[in-house]
Write a structure and sequence with these properties.
alpha+beta; three-stranded antiparallel beta sheet; two-stranded antiparallel ribbon; 7 strands; 15% strand; ion transport; disulfide bond; ligand-gated sodium channel activity; transmembrane
């Protein structure tokens, strides 16, 4: 009977598991919160200090994560004054390939399809008499005769469409030689129409200080390039100006 009473008294005096864990833990302050002592004021102070430190730690971590997600960077500028500056290599590029008002009938004949203004269509005519046009069997048709038609007429303004119809009339037209460089020089946008004002170091510069530096190297590159103009004086010392 005495052994049973002693074992029951030992079980009652056994500390809770949380106190055992806190006493053996290396986390600073937790052993003072869950302690065997019954001093309430001391435990309350340690609870305040522990929660305050934990809150400060979480606040600093969140602040540093937020700062990292902003991707901060530092830009360093070294300003060097110079008494004399060379006129910079300024390049203007006009993404409009050509001016329609300067396109001629000969231009449309040679490059109308390339300029996305005309479609080339094959028309076969009957070679034997007695058959109406396009009603004979395929074996009766002659050689293919190429003709042109205007593309996307519903997207074109009426005034432009009338001018395009007039220029696209190739009946009895005798084409002349065509040169893409000459076409670009003649129909490309002029720097005088694009340059509104130009001043450098108190002096005025004009359209005469620029010249064309970029041309398409082939007809199939016309849709991927634009007319570019660069200052003249800087081209002698800089070959990579466009």
């Amino acid at each position: 009977m005495d052994l049973k009473v002693e074992s029951e008294e030992m079980d009652c005096k056994k500390p809770p598991a949380i106190e055992v864990f806190a006493h053996n833990s290396t986390l600073h302050g937790i052993s003072h919160i869950f302690t065997y002592e019954r001093v309430c004021v001391k435990r309350c102070l340690w609870v305040v200090f522990f929660l305050g430190s934990l809150t400060l730690l979480l606040f600093v971590c969140v602040d540093r994560i937020h700062f990292y997600l902003e991707y901060p960077h530092v830009t360093k500028l070294d300003e060097i004054s110079t008494p004399m500056m060379v006129f910079p290599a300024v390049t203007f590029c006009n993404l409009n390939f050509f001016r329609f008002s300067h396109v001629t009938r000969n231009d449309l004949y040679h490059a109308g399809e390339l300029l996305a203004l005309l479609n080339q269509r094959c028309v076969k005519r009957v070679t034997k008499c007695g058959f109406a046009h396009n009603t004979a069997p395929p074996s009766q048709y002659g050689a293919c005769q190429w003709t042109y038609e205007i593309r996307d007429t519903h997207l074109v303004e009426d005034s432009v469409l009338e001018a395009l119809k007039d220029k696209a009339d190739f009946h009895n037209f005798k084409p002349r030689p065509f040169n893409m460089r000459e076409f670009y020089d003649r129909t490309g946008h002029d720097i005088k129409d694009m340059l509104l004002a130009c001043h450098f170091r108190g002096a005025e510069c004009s359209a005469d200080d620029f010249q064309v530096v970029s041309y398409p190297r082939a007809l199939d590159q016309l849709s991927r390039q634009s007319l570019c103009l660069c200052t003249k004086d800087t081209q002698k010392n800089n070959s990579n100006y466009y």
